[in-house]
Amino acid sequence: MFSGPGTEPGSTPDPQAAPRRPALSPSRAGDFKQCPLLYRFRAVDRLPETPTKAQVRGTVVHAVLEQLYALPADERQPERAHALIAPTWERLSAEEPGLTAIFDGESVEEQLAAWLESAGGLVDGYFELEDPRRLQPEACELLVETELDSGVLLRGYIDRLDVAPTGEIRVVDYKTGVAPREIGEAKALFQMKFYALALWRLRGVVPRQLRLMYLADRQSLAYTPDEAELSRFERTLDAIWTAILRAAPTGDFRPNKTKLCDWCSHQAICPAFGGTPPAYPGWPEPDSGDETILERAD
């Protein structure tokens, strides 16, 4: 159904256009929903976070798959994808030197070799899920931006957009971890509904399918949204942005202690764990809504 030729997106904004209005991204919306203080640390304080090997590996694999679809269809073979892994890492680490911090201590070359091999395993997982030679996406790493009726501006990147000759839309997102449990699945669907809403508002078409591809354990989950559901989700995003702007003048972004705190980089300065946050820097301008390459590959 989604193997037809692509068309020009038309509604895609120019990513070089400036200045851009503040926007809400799926990552930042998810942060606030999970923990308002986490949103503050990332969007307002913009505190640095050390990436993990898994995060950086996911970024590399996403970039490899994007390059794979830039090739002629008959060249989208597993061996060609594997050949892209090392050069992609070299390019990304040159652009973002901090990424090399994931390797430390002795035997760095051995660590790197094993890590690149594990990235190859994820690429193999992708080829077990579908044959890219049979697909012609309209776009990969597509920037979408749209304003809701309330004035909230949404901005995010879609891993892959497939459009059938009949006009049906499929949104595809690559996940380089294993298929999640209930909390993780809800987080992933939140992100996908964000993209579905943006596309609906841009094109007037509700995506026929939202597809999550979990490369580590070779599982694929598909979800079909409808207009009523996306309308409810739009109200959710409106409420999130309203709450953000309400907290912005005073910095009253409160922690929300959950099981997800175990993976937070900011426990040492979180009041929920006995820490003290840095002085609130104020709200000179709302967050730009731009996601890092690590967040876009999450």
Word description of this protein:
Helix 6 (182-203) links the parallel strand 3 and strand 4. The protein contains eight helices and five strands; from the N terminus they run H-H-H-H-H-E-E-E-H-E-E-H-H. Strands 1-2-3-4-5 form a five-stranded mixed β-sheet, sandwiched between helices. Helices cover 41% and strands 13% of the residues. It has 298 residues and is an alpha+beta fold. The longest helix is centred in the middle third of the chain and has 22 residues, at 108-129. Helix 3 (53-68) packs across helix 4 (78-95), helix 3 packs across helix 5 (108-129) and helix 4 (78-95) packs across helix 5 (108-129).
Outline of this structure?
The chain is an alpha+beta fold. It contains 8 helices and 5 strands.
Number of helices, where a helix is a run of at least 4 consecutive DSSP H or I residues: 8
- The coarse silhouette is globular
User: Are there runs of 5+ residues with pLDDT below 50, and where?
Assistant: 1-20
Largest sheet: 5 strands, mixed
Report the strand count. Answer: 5
Average residue-wise pLDDT: 88
Order the strands across the largest sheet as they lie in space. 1-2-3-4-5
Give the N-terminus to C-terminus distance in angstroms. 27 Å
- The amount of beta strand, in percent, is 5-15%
Radius of gyration from CA coordinates: 20 Å
Question: In terms of topology, how is this protein built?
Answer:
Elements: H1 26-34, H2 36-44, H3 53-68, H4 78-95, H5 108-129, E1 139-147, E2 153-163, E3 169-175, H6 182-203, E4 209-214, E5 219-223, H7 227-247, H8 293-296
Parallel strand pairs: 3-4
Antiparallel strand pairs: 1-2, 2-3, 4-5
Helix pairs in contact: 1-2, 3-4, 3-5, 4-5, 6-7
